[in-house]
Amino acid sequence: MRVPVLLDAVIGLLTVVALPLAIVAIPNTISVVSALLPSDVSPLAMTRAYGLALPAMLLTVPLAAVGARLTRPAPILLSGLALLAAADAAGGFAGSTLMVAILRVAHGVGAGMLIPATLVAVWERPSRRILLPLWAGALAASLVGAQAMALWPLDDVTAWQVTLQPYPMLTGVALGLGAAYLVLRLLSTDDAASARPADGEIGRLALTAVPAAGIGALAIGTTFDWPSGLVIGAAAIAVAALLGLSLAATFDGTAGRTLALTSVCVGLALLPTVAQATYVELRGLGGPGLSGLTIPFWLAAVVAVGAAWLASRTPQESAARLNGAGLVAVVAGLSGIRLMVPSTGGTLLVIPFALLAAGAAVALVSALRQAGIGTTLFGLSLCFPAVLAGFLLGTGIQVTKLRAIGSSGNVTRQALVDGFVGALHLWALIGGFLVVLVLVLMGILARRAAIVPAMAGPAAAEAEAGPEDVVVVVPADEFEAEDVPPLRDLAEFEASLDAADPGESGGK
């Protein structure tokens, strides 16, 4: 097998394995095994320590994106996998809150390195038309299934440290694939590296670390007993800031803004919503449990990859329409969450999960087809701050509902279940309206992009041109070719006109 073909195969396998490993680092699952914590460990302090992974991750993504643009993705990808493997190995020996905090930060940094590195690795290959839909589908499926993936290894565990190393064997496989990718990249003779960064690209990529740091600090601050209304207000400001940055500081004009807005929508709508739905469907709240969600999640993943592949096979001119159609499917999936959760059997959940995963995958791959690598990494750097902002909004709504139940005096099991379900339904409604708002913004941008060139047209071209640039078009039937002598300069041109019509010349 030729090295380029083998290299593409390894990148495809890395995408399928590494992206889920990166996204599964996001959920905070320590509350599920809190009964197993030592008596001298504060559950609240441990929850804060576990929650450090996502802030570390969203800070790392833009910095790793800068590194991948300035160098090669292979060393960054392998370093991220090595850091994840080391954190997994050390997780079995964790015994203190400080150790847990260090390991969760390591998980977040490693995951943040993997996501842009895999994207650049895909982008620089000649076969990216095949690899790119695989990457988009894997990311969408991972965001939909992350909470369930984080919870599956915790069934009937006897040690809380399992939460720090949920998939050690899969991490080892990914590390081996990363080493193979590095070797094959060195052996490959086809120079398929991405174009050099454009002027200002690195600065704009680094700029996304600013809102990431702000939202990360906000998330840590909210764990210190902030009022739920303040959490909701701060998260709403964060969402508005991300949307504003998507509109103001992107590359590639309308295509760049579309990709950035799509990334914010995908981050905001998928994982924060499905994470709540997954908890509602656990057996303790009357659902079928994780076993009843296995088929819906796997089918959603397959549908996401297939839908992304089909979208990538369409003509380039249809990419903008497919991007909008994908986001409409996300809205439909959020509506399905409101209508079908809770589900006693779990089978019906394949509909909203598949709509969310496939819609996000189609929207992402369609936006990626229209943009350059700098724009792509910029949008990706906004996706994970949006995930954290979505979690903050959803948590604020949930706490508000539960506190209202507590103050009502009717604190029963059914009342709590109703509170969780009501919070999920309200968040799905808000998330749907936010996606619709983004669709309206995209429509306005598309209309402006179509109107401005049409209005500018010939007038703009004439205004741009100086007097010496104006071209006079003469009908072809007014001159015979032999009547027009070769012209070398303007003086010869005027002389030829005088010779052709002496009467008019003399009358001047």
Keywords:
single chain, about 500 residues, mainly alpha, Growth Hormone, Chain: A, 18 helices
Task: Count the beta strands.
Answer: 0
CATH class of the largest domain equals Mainly Alpha
The helix/strand class is mainly alpha
What is the global morphology?
globular
Radius of gyration, CA atoms, in whole angstroms: 28 Å
Q: What's the total helix number?
A: 18
Count of domains? 2
- Percent of residues in β-strands: under 5%
Low-confidence stretches: 456-491, 502-508
Roughly how many Å apart are the termini?
80 Å
Report the major sheet.
none
H and E string: HHHHHHHHHHHHHHHHHH
SSE diagram, text form:
Elements: H1 3-23, H2 43-50, H3 53-70, H4 73-91, H5 97-123, H6 128-151, H7 168-187, H8 201-207, H9 209-222, H10 228-248, H11 253-280, H12 294-312, H13 319-340, H14 350-370, H15 373-408, H16 413-464, H17 490-500, H18 502-506
Q: What report would you give on this structure?
A:
Helix 9 packs parallel to helix 15 (373-408). The chain has helices spanning 3-23, 43-50, 53-70, 73-91, 97-123, 128-151, 168-187, 201-207, 209-222, 228-248, 253-280, 294-312, 319-340, 350-370, 373-408, 413-464, 490-500, 502-506. It folds into two domains: 1-189, Growth Hormone, Chain: A, CATH 1.20.1250; 204-459, Growth Hormone, Chain: A. It is 73% helix and 0% strand. It has 508 residues and is an all-alpha fold.
Q: Can you give me a brief rundown of this structure?
A:
The chain has 508 residues and is an all-alpha fold. It has 18 helices and no strands.
